[in-house]
Sequence to fold (196 residues):
Amino acid sequence: MRLVLLGPPGAGKGTQAQALSALWGIPQIASGDLLRAVVREDSELGREAASYMDRGQLVPDEFVLKLIAERFRKKDARSGFILDGFPRNVRQAEALGTGLEHAGLKLDKVVAVTLPDEEVVKRISGRRTCRNCAAMYHVVFEPPAWECATSAVANSISARMTAKTPFASGSRFMTKPRARCSTTMAASDCSRRSTE
Fold:
């Protein structure tokens, strides 16, 4: 199965992709995950991606398509894959179609996941990611199991939210990493930020 899940951020594409990936035994491929992985490698490609990301710019389509094409060639993607949130625009879709055609592949399904705008805002504004281990949480739907933190920890939090949004003012942050946090760290080292 070669599947594309489209929809706005927060619509549940990633959640559904993870479930389908486990069910079908094929990889979930998300462009954001690929970019974060290549940046961690500290390779030439990683430094190029980081140069865009550090400036708050979008990484060019050609670069992202190159990463996705490389990912398609890995052994676990030979029997299928789930593209999670890519392509995001017509240009990316056309380039993906051309790339798949050159590789002798075709998509089986494209599914649009829809959600009212108000729900999208609610879901996105509550997202948090641990900077150290990349564990993802949501302040409403999956809050972290941490206790209130000191002001030093609260000051290390950066969230793309307004001060009117819960948790944005630093009034309730967490200090004890969840069991799934893969790193051992001081409480002040494990902080939160909004994800895209």
About this structure: The chain has seven helices and seven strands. Residues 90-102 form the longest helix (13 residues).
